[in-house]
Amino acid sequence: MRILILSDIHANLEALNAVLEAAPAHDQVWNLGDIVGYGANPNEVIDLSRSLGSISACGIRSVFVRGNHDKACSGVDGFESFNPIAAHAAAWTHSVLTPEHLEWLRQLPAGPITIENSQASCAHGSPLDEDQYLVDLNDAHLPLASAPARINFFGHTHVQGAFATNGEDWFHIVPEYGGDGPEEYELPLRENARYLINPGSVGQPRDRDWRAAFALYETEQIDANILAQRVTFYRVPYDIEQTQQKIRDANLPDRLATRLAEGR
Ligand code: ZN
């Protein structure tokens, strides 16, 4: 099974298109939320995101969990906790979303979702709290130790990488890249370890790398006892100037355009 893992697309259509073009063949898409908010193409990105599951050869839909921006932009939550720029973008997004898309966002499930017939779960923030930020090993300690699933996908921080433990040692895994074209970084998953894995943000990376981020999760039954699993992290360039121009044309705060180039 090959599963495309997407998170924090944030209405960035150019980045999502670049990711889908670069993505290897896959059976399912697991979307970790924050589909909208910040970017200028919320309706287009929702349509495209929803269409991805239907191409699945095995007939299983995409998996979605909601993000805090999906809640704020659709009115499930207020945005009192948002900074002024994020609040401005959420209000703008709410005003341009079609009624159907608003309703679709409102019914997105809260994470974590445990995936049937797998060892994996999906959440936006943490498998223990959908709105929590898992930034460092301190934050990751409790969810790594106590989340029901062994392999937990999460987003929310917009920082690509993984936390892992074998019960004795604790690891923060950061993909190493050297260039600024398309790149990938492979992480074999060990059977005796537990993981928190962040594919990074498609539409607004914050790890000082402007390229769109995503991941591919692969499982392969080697024999009755061995299930080989690995995650590959990816970075791909996209047409950032076009995205920035759309943000300015929509009169969204200019900072939302400039931060994309800085990757923060
Ligand atoms: Zn986000």
List keywords for this structure.
single chain, 264 residues, alpha/beta, Purple Acid Phosphatase, chain A, domain 2, 6-stranded mixed sheet, 8 helices, 12 strands, 29% helix, 23% strand, binds zinc ion
CATH architecture: 4-Layer Sandwich
- CATH class group: Alpha Beta
**Unique ligands:** zinc ion
CATH topology: Purple Acid Phosphatase, chain A, domain 2
Structural class: alpha/beta
Approximate helicity band: 25-40%
- The CATH superfamily is Metallo-dependent phosphatases
State the total count of DSSP E strands. 12
Strand order of the largest sheet: 3-2-1-11-12-9
Mean pLDDT, all residues: 95
Summed up, the domain count is: 1
Separate helix tally = 8
Radius of gyration: 17 Å
Distance between the termini: 33 Å
The sequence of SSEs as H and E is: EHEHEHHHEEHEEEEEEEHH
- What characteristic shape results from the CA principal axes? globular
